[in-house]
Structure formats: C-alpha cells, structure tokens
Amino acid sequence: MNIGIIGVSGYTGLELLKILIAHPEFNITYLGTTEGNEQIESLHPSLSGVYSADVEKTDIVEVSKQCELVFLALPHKTAMSYVKELSKFDIKIVDLSADYRLKRETYEEFYVPHIDPDNLEKSVYGLPELFRDDIKKASLIANPGCYPTASILGTAPFLKHKLKNSTIIIDAKSGVSGAGKKLSTTTHFVTVNDNMFAYSPMAHRHSPEIEEKLSTVSGEREKVIFVPHLVPVTRGMLASIYVQVENEIDPIALLKEFYRDEKFIRIREKPVSMKDVAGTHYCDIYAKYSDGVIYIESAIDNLLRGASSLAVANANLMAGFDEVLGLPNFAYVP
Question: Which residues are catalytic?
Fold first, then answer.
C-alpha cells in the first residue's frame, strides 16, 4: 500500500519514518510539510546515508494521487483542515493530533472551535486493545494521546471492579520529547536537568480524553484526577494509577486474563520501568492490591506506543494487514 506522511519534520514524523522505511507492506510515496522543498536528511540528519527522499510542500491533490493512506503528524487545529480536504478523496487517514479524539463540545472546551464536525462523527479512537473491530472498518483514525494510552490501558481492566462513584487518580511522568521539537522555557535544559515538576495539574487537556474513553468502556460516567509531570529523560512514560475497588481481587491474574491475547501488553510481576519499553511498542503493566485500593503502573515509550508505532498498528488494521507488522520490540537497553 502506498502511504504518505504529512508533518514529517517533528519527532513523531521521524519515528514514523524509522518504522515505515522497513515496513514489509507499506511503500512511502509522499513526504510533506507546510514549507517543503528540502531533503529529509536536512530535517533529520540521523537519516543521512540511511534514507533519502524529497520533502514536498504539501499539496492535497498530489497526496490523493500518490497515496492510499496518510499519516498526519500535525498540531491540533492544523490537522483538521487537512482531514477536511483529504476526506474528499478515497484515502485512509491516521491523525496523530487531538482533533478527532473527543466529542465536539469537549474538544471545543479544551482546544479550539471545530471546523470538521462531519468527520469528527465518523472518526474511530485508535486504541486496538479496546476498539480493534471498529478500527478495521474505519477510514479516519484518531490516534490517542500518550498519557491517555498509558492511563487507559492500565485502568480499563479494573473498571468492572471499581467502587461505585469513586474517583480514579493518575499521577504520570513523561520524558521531555513529549513536548515536541519546539523550544520553550519549560523544556530548556536548565529547567529540566536535575529537576521534576508537575504541569497543568488537574487541568491538562488529556484529562477529558482519559475520562471520556474510560466512560465509553465502563458505560458509566468516570471521574479522573490527572496530574502530569516532566522528568529529565528523553523518552518514556510512567503512569501511577489508583483505583478504589469493591472487593479484594488478584490484580495480576485479572490483568493476564484481560490482555491474554495481546502481543504488545506485558503483565509484570514487579514494578515496571520506562527503560524496559523505550524504543518499543510494548506497554508494561504492574498492579498490586492493598486495603481496598488497586495500585497500577503502566509504562510506554511516549513517542512510539504513545504516538508513532500506535499509528502504524492502526494503519495495519485499516489496511487489512497483521496488526503487529513492523512494530518495534527491542528496547533501548542499556
């Protein structure tokens, strides 16, 4: 299948390329940015001598001629303008932005007015472990955020056992690459080095995404307290989750049963670490029961399982390929 990437200049664009260059079924026929007119090696010097290609100034008509499926690695608001135009053609889309993840009223409360409500209604949330059958039939995938991916995968198995009307608490840490390539005071070396701090506590944009999708899974209105932290590592994510439950349960046994057929979910007998999943599509989960509370740890690579490799898994399903084709499974250890 011929595929393209629009927004190839950022970290997620680079990670998509690294997977797709070696993918056995996808053929890269188009690379685009809003500026274009350069070589991919000038955008990503790490690809020098490995892969060479022209990066075009994105032209929707050309994209529709050259591609059967397109990945959009663009900021919110920008992405929906591209989807609106691309949807006029017979082309599958995996959108890595937030533009199609939420119901319209929730999206507009936390982001901007939505200009493409018709496609928003048709989009499918791209978390295969929970929505695989819908993804296979979709033409537009809303690729989940990194914090929601780790949080939802860790929490979902315990929703049936949760104490009624109790609040889920999520304390999460992310590597600095999650903030993207753009420089800012928050991600400046002097700010991040030898430091750790919370940002947007109980007001982060990923909080409503986590709540909305967990509510879809449980069929109940779920309430989440979500606090993200920035830690001085390049990549990785660890969510610590606290769920009050009705009765004592064996959380490891429950996790193993819930994810028994999932090749890229690893249930751990000991607390997890970001290093063990860095560079992979794996999500490692650990849980422990104590005095009416389940403590859950969920670790992913924020750029891969939290963005690019998840996008490829969704594309595999949309194209009718084996879901695991091309997905990275060797961690960056040591």
Answer: 146
What letter does residue 40 receive in the DSSP assignment?
H
Separation between Cα atoms, residue 219 and residue 23, nearest integer Å: 37
- Residues facing 240 on adjacent strands: 171, 297
The tens digit of pLDDT for each residue in 271-320 reads 999 999 999 999 999 999 999 999 999 999 999 999 999 999 999 999 99
Q: What contacts 148, CB < 8 A, 6 or more positions away?
A: 101, 206, 209, 210, 213
* Domains detected in the chain: 2-143+307-319 (3.40.50.720), 147-300 (3.30.360.10)
CA–CA dist 99, 142 (Å, integer): 8
The model carries a pTM of 0.97
Distance CA 142, CA 1 (A): 20
Cα 155 to Cα 255: distance, rounded to the nearest angstrom: 10
* Count of all residues that appear for the chain in the document: 334
154: part of which helix (H) or strand (E)? helix 146-155
| Phi, psi angles (nearest 5°) of residue 240 | -105, 120
